[in-house]
Amino acid sequence: MTTDEVVRRGGVADALAADGRMFTEWLQSQPGDLASLQKISSQLGLSPVELGPEGGCAKLQFSIDANFCNFLGQVHGGIVATLLDETAGLCACTLVGRGFRGTVSMHVDYLGPAKPGVLFSEGRLIKRASRLLFFETYLRSPSNDLLARGSSVVAYGPIRG
Q1: Is 154 helix (H, G, I), strand (E, B) or coil?
Q2: Cα 10 off chain centre by
Q3: Tens digit of pLDDT per residue, the chain (161 long)?
Q4: How far apart are the C-alpha atoms of 40 and 34, rounded to whole Å?
Q5: Closest C-alpha to 14, from 3, 5, 26
Q6: Under 8 Å between Cβ of 107 and 123
């Protein structure tokens, strides 16, 4: 199933408008955190590969250029963490849509150097609590080498105040 098919079927929770807009249009139309997610995602070359129709999981592709590298020519560790954070955030959006409130905590294990170019990430929900979602995320090279793994806690719920 393609990303757009998942989105059209309502796989992005109730946040998707009934008019069947495509994923990018839906993301751009979201307020607050989701709108800023789209801005940084476009700079990182984010392209959803697959969003789980049941929610809580995603596979993404990023196109990282040399501007995001350190002096060793490797993708900077902060950018690797950002890719994993984007993955967990998008996983959360597939479950709670506009209820997404942001990352509460995150841990990253760097397992190998990431080179600029195409990188792939995947994430999945491992636990849902009353206002928190727990995710595991992975970053891989095009040859499927595991470069980093992350664990994230994301808050969700109604807007207060």
Answers
A1: strand
A2: 18
A3: 344 443 333 334 333 333 334 455 555 555 554 445 567 777 888 888 887 767 789 999 999 999 999 999 999 999 999 999 999 998 998 888 778 888 999 999 999 999 999 999 999 999 999 999 999 999 999 999 999 999 999 999 876 65
A4: 10
A5: 26
A6: no
